[in-house]
Design brief:
Layout lengths: L7 E2 L2 E2 L10 E6 L17 E6 L5 E6 L3 E7 L13 E8 L4 E3 L4 E3 L5 E4 L7 E6 L4 E14 L23 E17 L9 E4 L5 E5 L3 E6 L7 E5 L12 E6 L6 E6 L4 E5 L11 E3 L12 H4 L4 E4 L5 E5 L3 E6 L8 E4 L8 H6 L9 E3 L5 E5 L4 E6 L5 E5 L9 E2 L4 E3 L8 E3 L11 E4 L5 E6 L2 E7 L3
Parallel strand pairs: 2-30, 31-32
Antiparallel strand pairs: 1-3, 3-35, 4-5, 5-6, 6-7, 8-9, 10-11, 11-12, 12-13, 14-15, 15-16, 16-17, 18-19, 19-20, 20-21, 22-23, 23-24, 24-25, 26-27, 27-28, 28-29, 33-34, 34-35
């Protein structure tokens, strides 16, 4: 049944053959003020980032319209076990607005590129959101009381004439309906010439870094007018440019260590203790290319679109166009694990190049125990790989295939020859429907999948 803000819940069980999953309960969210039909949506409604907070109680999404929508998990209700910990809209606010750089005659989109939560220190929540140029620190807090009984102001907030004040009153707090307020506490701007592609909060919780195509800057969360440049790969002559930075992330425990990936398929591990400007990396992770697989598209598909440390900080996961790889920090020459996401697209690279899909930037995530990897694909498919059993499964996030209480079966793609009834031909894949952004609950088997303007949340289902 329809919920608030045009949301619709779908209850589906997923019988996955992976030991860390049982059955799943998905439901769909749409940002407020969007058209309900999934086939009719504006560009501003497309979800551009998804992120759980450190406890998993909140889930934030950003879209191309510059909005941030936060969902909060309900407390479990013993009387309604089928609604176990569902997520509902908690707060919605406009984070960024479109701007225009008059000096460069450049339009700056309001699209939210990344959202990162800060650990909760008090009753309020804090998160960082960024578009191409500006990072903002937001405070999200609740208010259920209002002050009354001002001396210098009347009840409507107007300043009173001091001559009319004949007595002093003690202000009191009166109960009111719960209100969730989002206020910008810091605005970090004017530090990036190129588009910001990633932000990462340091484990000291005092600093964070922002990375664009050619530079990485280090910020203090309390200082907005100054940042430190820690990586600069811009050549003196831009015609000599051979690679750009695609993603960057801090080590989860060592505040001096971070990694960044490049469009050439390399990952560099840097130590900020070695020098103020990390021009020289500590380690370089790169897999030699197989000459037999060399093609016109090799450099494009080897570009890394996402890099993530696992929770212990021992391994790094990277996503390029066709594969997900896991690297051991102690072994630089090749990954210890390689998973084929959609190898059946290798024969379609020419058409994917023509429609620009080959430049899509897919993200990847770990589950809470680092035993399963999830990443997206086309046709609203997303893939899961169990690192222990080496099993994998392809699932589809789609309203059309998700009837109430129905069974959502794993999907298979047929490359050639005879196609079975439950398979889909690679020629029938819809490349306009793509899962670029996913998130995994930090401790439970709950996942969030963004499919264009729909947000699917899958969680374990109670029997």
């Amino acid at each position: 049944m329809p919920g608030p803000y045009g949301m619709r819940r779908l209850y589906v069980s997923l019988p996955l053959k992976m030991k860390c999953f049982s059955r799943y309960l998905p439901y769909i969210f749409r940002p407020p003020n969007t058209i309900l039909s999934s086939s009719c949506h504006t560009e501003a409604d497309i979800i551009s980032t998804v992120e759980f907070n450190n406890t998993g109680e909140l889930l934030a999404t950003g879209d191309k319209g510059g909005r941030v929508v936060i969902f909060q998990r309900e407390q479990e209700n013993k009387n309604q076990p089928h609604r176990r910990g569902e997520y509902n809209v908690y707060s919605t606010f406009q984070s960024h607005e479109p701007e225009f750089d008059y000096l460069k005659s450049l339009e700056i989109e309001e699209k939210i590129n990344k959202i990162r939560w800060l650990p909760q220190q008090n009753a309020a929540y804090f998160l960082l959101s960024t578009n191409d140029k500006t990072v903002k620190l937001w405070k999200v807090s609740e208010r259920d009381k209002r002050p009354e009984g001002y001396n210098l102001k009347d009840e409507e907030g107007r300043i009173r004439d001091p001559c009319t004040i004949t007595s002093l009153r003690v202000p009191v707090l009166r109960p009111m309906d719960l209100m969730v307020e989002a206020t910008p506490r810091r605005v970090f701007s004017n530090a990036h010439t190129y588009h910001i592609n990633s932000i990462s909060v340091n484990s000291d919780y005092e600093t964070y870094m922002s990375a664009d195509d050619l530079r990485i800057n280090l910020w203090n969360l309390e200082i907005t007018n100054r940042s430190f440049n820690i990586v600069d790969i811009k050549p003196t002559n831009m015609e000599e440019l051979t690679e750009v930075i695609t993603a960057a992330e801090f080590h989860p425990h060592n505040c001096n260590t971070f990694v960044y990936s490049s469009s050439k398929g390399t990952i560099r591990l840097c130590d900020m203790r070695s020098s103020a400007l990390c021009d020289k990396h500590s380690k370089l992770f790169e897999e030699p290319e197989d000459p037999s697989n060399r093609s016109f598209f090799s450099e494009i598909i080897s570009s890394i679109s996402d890099v993530k440390f696992n929770h212990s900080g021992r391994y790094i996961m990277t996503r390029d166009y066709l594969t997900v790889k896991v690297w051991d920090l102690n072994m630089e020459n090749r990954p210890i694990e390689t998973y084929q996401v959609h190898d059946y697209l290798r024969s379609k690279l020419c058409s994917l190049y023509e429609n620009d899909c080959i430049f899509d930037k897919f993200e990847c995530v770990w589950n809470g125990s680092d035993s399963v990897i999830m990443t997206g694909s086309y046709n609203n498919f997303f893939r899961m790989f169990d690192r222990n059993t080496k099993r994998d499964v392809t699932l589809e996030a789609s309203r059309e295939n998700s009837k109430p209480r129905a069974i959502l079966k794993p999907r298979k793609v047929c490359v050639g020859g005879k196609r079975r009834k439950d398979e889909i031909s690679v020629d029938s894949l819809d490349f306009s429907k793509k899962i670029l952004h996913t998130a995994w609950h930090p401790s439970e088997n709950i996942i969030a999948v963004a499919a264009t303007n729909n947000l699917y949340i899958f969680q374990d289902k109670v029997n």
